[in-house]
Structures are given as structure tokens and as C-alpha cells.
Amino acid sequence: MRTVLGLVGLSIPIVGVLGLISLSAGMRNLLGETLGQVQGMLVLREDAPAPIFSHLRADLEEKIRQVPGVRLVAAEVWEAAPPIEGTSLFRNLTKLENWTSKTKRMQSILDAAAVLGQDIETHLRSRTGVYSKSIKQGRFLTLDDRDQPRVVISRKTAGRHLDAAGKPKQVGDSLRIGEMEFQIVGIYDTGSMLFDDILVMDIGIARKLLGLAPGQVSCFYVEAERPDQMDQVARAIEAAVPGVDALNMREFQANFGSIMTEINNGLMLVVSLALLVGVVGIVNTMLMSTMERFAEFGVLRTNGWSRKDVLKLITAESAFLGLAAGVLGCLITLAAAAVANHFLTGGLHLAASPKQIAIGLGLSVVMGTIGGLYPAWKASRLAPMEAIRAGAR
């Protein structure tokens, strides 16, 4: 039983380490696949982490358009969506059934919708149409939708807000956003949780809905004449227009990676404490085991074994115990990832690669070895007859 508890105590933090690595890799892969659909760049207020936190003047559009190498400049408005059909993020979070469930509470946060107001005429000339290319029902926005309360929503949003018959919203149905009634003209499905909570509409209507000034924009979507000149054009825009950052999708991915690294580092500190507890468990297990076998070690010493031989034996046993804990932790991680993938949506997939498994096994062996050093040292320091007498008590 003592050995089993030691195995479990070390395997749990191994599961934590592998789980964090797997989740981080899954998020990075999802972001890479999502942003890979976009060929342009976004011009944001300097140091703004995302479009929803950026505010710029509309007259900057002409300055950006005059930068050599720029093919297209389209103004966009990004804001958190008002309550949809009377339901807001705050209301979801304060529902008793959501508050008592961590999973539902987290899902409510992930399901927070955002409004994207587009300059329709300019966006129709874009090479990249993430939403227009992902239409599953109806159509995308056209010039006839300018200044009209019409919206394109995701299949996920349609399924979350049901009609009077209890069925998902369809093309032609109305959708109340804030204080305005919108007609659904299209339903898209990008397959990415990063894109599938966006309400796409005309930029003028978005300003009215959100109460923004006529000349206010969040960012500009920019395409270069040649995709291979994206970096040069971005630097030229930043030089020509002070106070902005021109970020291509690769830079967004790098920024996200930095954020994920900081989060992982913080979580790894917590996991490190669990690893320390696991090592203490191994120390206790091996210490009790060696104390019960003092007579055995004494006999081995009288038959020619050196202190070094005893030290090697106990350390090897401890390392094997760590390896067994690592195998158990890896199996639990693989099983948990397989179960989680059945419930995860939006393109997020958890998987433990051979490299991650090797890291988990290696870490467990190292922790097991460290946990056995003190018991091995203590057993090896006893004189043969002293060890036999201690074991006979």
C-alpha cells in the first residue's frame, strides 16, 4: 500500500505537467491553423493586444493607403457584443446552474460574443474572406446590406439562441442584439473557437448598435500587393503613421505564444510544488523500505558488497519506482486527453506527442532517483553488523 501511495503521489504531478504541455500545444496549433486562414495584417493602436482593445481615427485610412506596397485598407469595428436575445455574459455567469459548475462557467466565458463591423465594399475586394468562405447557409454581406440591420452569425451562435419552436436560428430569422432587431442573412462555420463567436455586420450599423462615433474604428485590415512583402509594408506603415502597430498573423501568433509561455510558467510553479510533494512521498516510501531491509543489506555487506553497491541498488529501485509512476501518469494523461477530445469543440485537440511522453518519463525517473538518494545514503552508511542488529529489532 505504501508503494502504491508513492506511485500515485508522483504520477499526479506528472499528469499535471503533461496536461499543461498538451493544452499549450493544442492552443498553439489551433491559433496557427486559425490565423493561417488570414493573409493580411491588422493595424492597431500601439501596444493594443487585440482589436477589441484598440481605438483609431477613421481618417488614418487614407494615410495607410498611401504607403507604397499597400493593396487594400478596410476599416473595422470590434467590440464586445451587447446582450443577444436578452442574454449577456454577465447574466450567464450569474445563473445558479452555471455558477455551481466550473465547466459551464468557463464555457460561458468562452462563448462571449463580439461584434465585427466591416467596411463591406472594401472587404468584398479582399483576397482573404474567412467568414465569406465559411458560409454554410444563406450568403455573406453584400453592398445591399450597407446601413441595414442584417447580420451573419456562426452555426454555434445559431444553436445557442433558439427560435419559438426550440430549433436553432435559421437564415431569415430575426436576432435581437442589444436594442436592435437584426435579420440573419448568413450562417458560417469556420471550425475554430477563435472565430465562431463573431457577429459580422456593416460597420455603420455596428457603430449605431454600439453607440460609437461615426469616425471611430478599432483597426484597419490591410493587404499588401505582394504577400511576400508583408513585413516590409508593415514597417513602412508604422513609420508613416505614428502611434500604431502593424501586425501580421505570424506576429499575433508570436504574441499569443509569449502570453501562453507566461501562463505556463505560472502554472508550472504550482505543479512544481506537487512534484516536491511527490518526491517527499518517494523518500518516505524508500526510507521505510530500506529500514525494513537493514538485515538484508548487512548480509550483503558481509558477503563482499561495498557501500557503493548498496547505494546503487537502492537508487536503482527508487528510479524504477519513479519510472513506474511516470508510466502510470502517462497512461492517465493519454486516457484523459482521449476523453476530453470527445467533448472539446472549436478545433481544439489535445494530444500527448512522443516527445511529451519522453519528458514525462524522464522527469519521473529523475524525481524518483532524487527521492531515493537519502534512503540509499543512510542504508549504505551502516556497518554490516550494525545493519544486521538493526534489522533484527
Question: Unreliable stretches, pLDDT < 50, 5 or more residues?
Answer: 90-110
Beta-strand fraction estimate: 15-25%
* Overall 3D form: elongated
Largest sheet features: 6 strands, mixed
Which structural class matches the secondary elements?
A: alpha+beta
Summed up, the domain count is 2
Number of distinct beta strands = 12
Oligomer: single chain
Radius of gyration: 30 Å
Task: Please provide the ordered H/E string of secondary-structure elements.
Answer: HEEHEHHHEHEEHEEEHEEHEHHHHH
The percent of residues in helical segments reads 40-55%
- The CA-CA distance between the termini, in Å, is 23 Å
GO molecular function: ATP binding; hydrolase activity; transmembrane transporter activity
Family: Belongs to the ABC-4 integral membrane protein family.
Organism: Paludisphaera borealis
Pfam families: FtsX (PF02687), MacB_PCD (PF12704)
